[in-house]
Amino acid sequence: MNQPAIPQDVARSADYKDCAPGHRFLLYFPVWDHNFARQDNAKHTALQQVASSLPRSSRDLCDALVRRQNALFQGHPHGLRVEARSTAPFATGLGNEHPVENGFAFLTPYGLPYLAGSGVKGVLRRAAEELALDPGAYPANQRPTLLDVWWLFGFEAPNDECLKDPSWQRALEALAQRADLDDFIRQGLADQPGDRERYTGTVDNRATFLNRFWKSKDLPRRIHHRGALAFWDVFPEAKGMVVEIMTPHYKEYYFNGQPPHDAGQPNPVPFLAVPDGTDFTFHVTCAPQSLPESLQTGWKPLMEAVFAHAFDWLGFGAKTAVGYGVLEDRNLASPLAPETASEASLRAQRITWEAARLEYTPNDQTLLAQHEGNTARVVGKEASIQVLGDPAELERLKKQQRKKTITRRVEVEAKGNQFTLCRVFPAEG
């Protein structure tokens, strides 16, 4: 029998039903034999145990973290909140070390999956640069310029390959026409008085300075500008996790130096992911006093366009090139495609039903909640346990419903006239 790499007396007395997935994955991962040798054939089963170990305590903790973020955000005078939902599985931190060779990013000490604010910033910066370099992507007043990207995200010198790209060359040449380039250069060279004095701020001088600037190997590295935006960590509001499989081919070619061929055996590799349909809430705060006047009031529409582009074309987290990490905006309409009334009516929303009638049908393993003529359901025993929060709750419901009608407060996801049961709140008293 496989066990975690912990003392045997601890393993015998441990109860993992309330263990957060990050702790189960990182501290108590059951993939070792009694000699503490890793059993590779136990990876998938062990990951399934982690994926099913999102107890009610972890979900309540995630809800509390999100509520705390929302409360802090309400007190910030300059911020943007974007609510999104995943349309594909989400994975992050796969490069972290772990016995299964694919890690996952869990927030210590809570053991909850999260997307670091630095990762959010990286994706959105990439999206902003793509918009700045593609004049046809959005109207001029709805997309950032390259200088806007530097003001908002901080300065990052383009590499030699970028400088050879015609789109980068056009964007850099346009910088000479921006009057707020003067303030940006002077702020960025605040600790370089010699370079700052050579910059006078006229259009001709800007062009001359920029030409010398991009040819220099050292001058771009001497500009230091933080950027006005701050990006908060994001906590996926998942009801559970899933195990995904990647199947790398040509193992003999990559590891044994043999010629690649189609007769080789693929190597299935399991890894953890957050399932699609999970809610994500992004918080961005701004320090407008460090921005030019044009951006102090105009940064929000630009960032809405940046988010829309990131949702449509980039994705968040790992393996985005093969379709993971795709999100859709739940509330903010795209700057180019305002939401119609019919689309708004079909958008999924979370609502609470008070005193819904609860019933579990063992034959088809379906948990039902009925309220004012509407029915929400979730199919499958494991899914029902996740919604109830505890296997004991399911057994208790099966016994009690034989004697009386069970009513509970429930949370459902409504999309049009379709309802999915998401959570059953504990009985009061």
From TrEMBL:
GO BP term (any one): defense response to virus
Pfam family, one: RAMPs
Signal peptide extent: none
Keywords associated with the record: Antiviral defense
Record bears the keyword Phosphoprotein: no
Entry-linked NCBIfam families: cas_TM1791_cmr6
Segments forming domain CRISPR type III-associated protein: 88-328
Protein name: CRISPR-associated protein Cmr6
